[in-house]
Backbone:
């Protein structure tokens, strides 16, 4: 039986219509941000330049796509409907009457739904991994830059060691199916996921040392929430069964954090070495503040500008890394709808069909582009101050 | 200067030692050895036979002994055949010595490739040569183009040219090789039919037809980054006093850019280009796999996919060496180019 097709303009209209929750959310958030941009500090200033608006728009677009994925996508991203195998864009699925907007791939899955669901994987792992990398890099970079000397030598040597690995080799070594049988990923996760807890504990301790009423509440929250997530992520023993991560995803997560935290470390270290010569640091030292108070409450807030810019770029870079992992079939499940895996599957068949390749490539490119534009205009705005 | 270079070389040697040890450890994890044994023996072998294979081929010796042997600090022991009791070769396809000899990386013996059934050297070095050609072409395209874009954009900060070129370079840094590769293949190979979507034939002879797509794909990701760095450096130089002085003395704008600004603006991009090599290495792997070009990246993927221990070690040694040596060159070169930062 030959599939029925709809025309090109109908496809475009249908795609735009499918994204309706995104448009609504985008309209509300962008409109509100634009109206109140004067009161929103750095975020508000983004709306002063065209580049900034485009960057925020693209990032929010993919964020809302990930949130509303189940409403937007007409089909199950893993569901196969044999009759739709390799169909061109706009083919109508006879049973439900719904349309394979971007066609079907070689396993007869809906390319459009897969692209939409792929955003979920990317938007969960990339920012979270970047967050952990920031925590690790900041917690180690602060003392390395502030104290210098031996601690700096050792930490910098370790960071350079990791940076000397070509990323692809690191992934081939760290993200193999075999390594899941060894305790290595769990040990690394155990170490990396400890850093946020240490970071926040020290952060609150140094600030509220003399105010036990505040200190105990904040420390308690940190330890309970941190410990809960830690149990769930590292040991998969969350008593409430809410925090859970697939062993495969844990492996990827750890590898990505491992690959990108030395970069953060280097940036933080450089910033600290620069900032620690300022007068307000000397003033704090004269007041007799503890070194960690100075690092976390005097130096770190003043290093936030470059760090925010770097975090934006890094989320984009992590997205590229995730795509690389998917492209080489490392870590993620072979049927996973993430963009890298989809590009890999489609690029092998480019000679016969090109339509399954384009949606994930354009999706990945636009998301990274959005983040880069965002970072660029953030950098420009923070330079104005 | 000399002591600086020597100290850096010392750190480099230490780094390589640590890195190879880590790689050695990770490759020789139990699941990886199992996988190797399964792929090297017949189908449906029992667990004991797999274990025997591993013992017979020397994979069950102490970790540090084996690392020392690979490095060439400990003698490689010949394997005894359990049936005859005589020393035999571990692998028939490469000449393992029949008597204990020091034969490791330090002596120039990279070991045996179990996947390609040959010595690592005879597989790795031709592949490196092939990748060298690719890298050369990429650099020949990437460096002039990106410097030109950067200089044009940075010459007049905030102008229309600047904004257009800046957004273009941001877009190019947002396009990893596997994305641009697919898009270029679709446009130039599938739709227009101008270029070949596979570079497999390039090992016989490089033509414009089969080699343009890989080079273009690899270059595009780096161009944006180098161009942005060049632009930043150019912008900084153009605000300097001596540029204004030269301008006020009546030299034309073009003359100032070419004679006064360029020399100073190109110091920073030199470092960036050198530090771009590790990125290029990852890109090379992606591009070679995508376009089926038999080079270093292709070899690395094959080695990693088949758990070919010696070949993968050789690959990592080479890639780590490239990363470290380019870092060294960038540091030394920077000191040479910039008289203000001469190392004491």
Residues:
């Amino acid at each position: 039986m030959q599939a029925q097709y709809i025309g090109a303009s109908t496809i475009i209209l249908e795609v735009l219509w499918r994204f309706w929750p995104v448009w609504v959310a985008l309209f509300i958030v962008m409109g509100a941000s634009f109206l109140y941009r004067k009161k929103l500090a750095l975020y508000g200033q983004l709306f002063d330049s065209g580049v900034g608006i485009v960057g925020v728009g693209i990032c929010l677009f993919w964020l809302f796509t990930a949130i509303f994925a189940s409403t937007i996508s007409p089909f199950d991203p893993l569901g196969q409907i044999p009759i739709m195998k390799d169909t061109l864009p706009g083919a109508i699925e006879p049973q439900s009457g719904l349309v394979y907007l971007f066609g079907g791939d070689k396993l007869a899955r809906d390319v459009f739904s897969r692209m939409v669901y792929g955003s979920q994987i990317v938007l969960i792992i990339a920012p979270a991994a970047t967050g952990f990398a920031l925590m690790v890099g900041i917690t180690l970079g602060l003392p390395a830059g502030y104290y210098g000397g031996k601690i700096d030598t050792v930490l910098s040597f370790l960071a350079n060691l990791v940076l000397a690995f070509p990323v692809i080799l690191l992934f081939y070594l760290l993200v193999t199916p075999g390594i899941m049988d060894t305790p290595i990923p769990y040990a690394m996760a155990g170490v990396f996921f400890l850093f946020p807890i240490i970071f926040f504990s020290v952060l609150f301790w140094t600030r509220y040392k003399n105010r036990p009423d505040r200190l105990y509440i904040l420390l308690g929250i940190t330890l309970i929430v941190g410990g809960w997530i830690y149990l769930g992520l590292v040991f998969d023993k969350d008593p409430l069964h809410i925090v859970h991560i697939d062993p495969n995803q844990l492996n990827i997560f750890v590898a990505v954090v491992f690959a990108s935290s030395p970069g953060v470390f280097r940036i933080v270290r450089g910033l600290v070495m620069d900032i620690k010569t300022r007068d307000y640091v000397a003033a704090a030292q004269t007041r007799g503040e503890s070194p960690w108070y100075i690092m976390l409450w005097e130096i770190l807030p003043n290093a936030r500008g470059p760090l925010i810019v770097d975090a934006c770029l890094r989320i984009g870079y992590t997205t590229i890394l995730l795509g690389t992992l998917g492209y080489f079939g490392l870590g993620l499940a072979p049927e996973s709808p993430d963009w890298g895996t989809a590009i890999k599957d489609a690029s092998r068949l480019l000679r016969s069909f090109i339509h399954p390749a384009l949606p994930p490539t354009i999706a990945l490119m636009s998301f990274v582009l959005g983040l880069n534009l965002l970072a660029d205009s953030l950098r420009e705005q923070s330079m104005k101050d | 200067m000399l002591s600086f270079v020597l100290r850096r070389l010392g750190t480099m040697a230490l780094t390589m030692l640590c890195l190879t040890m880590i790689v050695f450890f990770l490759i020789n994890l139990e699941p990886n050895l199992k996988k190797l044994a399964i792929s090297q023996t017949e189908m449906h072998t029992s667990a004991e036979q797999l274990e025997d294979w591993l013992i017979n081929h020397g994979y069950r010796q102490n970790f540090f002994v084996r690392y020392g042997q690979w490095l060439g600090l400990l003698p490689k022991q010949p394997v005894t055949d359990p049936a005859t009791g005589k020393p035999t070769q571990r692998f028939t396809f490469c000449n393992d010595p029949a008597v204990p000899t020091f034969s490791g990386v330090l002596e120039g013996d990279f070991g045996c490739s179990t996947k390609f059934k040959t010595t690592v050297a005879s597989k790795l070095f031709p592949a490196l040569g092939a990748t060298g050609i690719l890298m050369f072409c990429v650099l020949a395209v990437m460096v002039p183009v990106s410097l030109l874009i950067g200089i044009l954009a940075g010459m007049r900060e905030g102008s229309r040219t600047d904004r257009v070129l800046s957004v273009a370079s941001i877009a190019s840094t947002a396009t990893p090789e596997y994305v641009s590769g697919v898009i270029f293949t679709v446009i130039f190979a599938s739709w227009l039919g101008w270029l070949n979507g596979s570079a497999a034939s390039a090992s016989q002879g490089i033509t414009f037809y089969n080699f343009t797509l890989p080079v273009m794909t690899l270059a595009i990701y780096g161009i944006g980054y180098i161009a942005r760095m060049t632009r930043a450096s150019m912008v900084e130089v153009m605000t300097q006093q001596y540029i204004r002085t030269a301008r006020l003395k009546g030299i034309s704008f073009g003359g100032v850019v070419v004679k006064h600004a360029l020399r100073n603006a190109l110091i920073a991009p030199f470092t960036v280009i050198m530090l771009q090599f590790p990125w290029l290495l990852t890109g090379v792997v992606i591009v070679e796999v995508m376009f089926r070009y038999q080079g270093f990246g292709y070899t690395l993927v094959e080695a990693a996919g088949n758990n070919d221990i010696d070949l993968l070690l050789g690959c990592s040694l080479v890639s780590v060496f490239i990363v470290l040596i380019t870092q060294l060159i960038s540091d030394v070169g920077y000191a040479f180019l910039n008289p203000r930062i001469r190392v004491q």
